[in-house]
Amino acid sequence: MNILLVNDDGIREEGLKVLAQALAPLGDLYIVAPEEHQSGQSQSITIYEPLKIKHYGSLYGSKLAISVEGKPADCTRIAIGTLNVPFDLCVSGINSGLNVGSDILYSGTVGAATEAMILGVPAIAISAPKKGLFLAQKTVYEVVKHLIDTRAVTTDYVLNINYPSSKFQQILGVKWTRQGLHHHTAKFEKVDEYTYKTVYELKETEESLDSDVVAFRMGYLSITPLIESRYSEEVVNNLKKQKQLNPTFIYDKIVK
Asked: Domain Survival protein SurE-like phosphatase/nucleotidase, which positions (predicted)?
């Protein structure tokens, strides 16, 4: 099995090392990761600038390791587009910190995995609190292997895996979850006339028991399938039921 490892924290990040060492028995590993920290890049890509790479030999026991002076999704695209390797799986992580709720919208870890899915490679994104990395170190091999063996990893979705809060010394269970909320508010502190410092604060939100946010808080490993489309058929159907939002009414309003 040919496995592509990517992340958003950079090629020297401990989580990537832990992931590579854990998954080595599953097949040949190819590491393509950012040269520098790239958190918060979502699925953005470099368009106008050239992408420079640096070779790292067989870093962490891989067949090949290179860094990219670009974004996490760039790493996925470079790997799939230039290495001439038929990848069977892409695993992104292990991210330092959680990626649940609205974190997912900004996550370079999830973005890199989503890019792989779009390019035809099944993908998993994995995140763990920095102080909770030991839980991933002990279990990530079995988690990934089981998902492969049961054919749960496909190109229909990305599996977003989050390890529980670092206050737990062991995983209390595993849950299939939906994406929760977990909003952050931003405050801007003025440093000088030309500079602001951004301070993020977690906004408490009510969550249902089947959300990834609650699973994280309660000591569970969460697995959330994420699809590419943000379209909601339920919302569209509800809008159509309103007379003034019916497509025929709108057409008559703006054309006739």
From this structure: 3-184
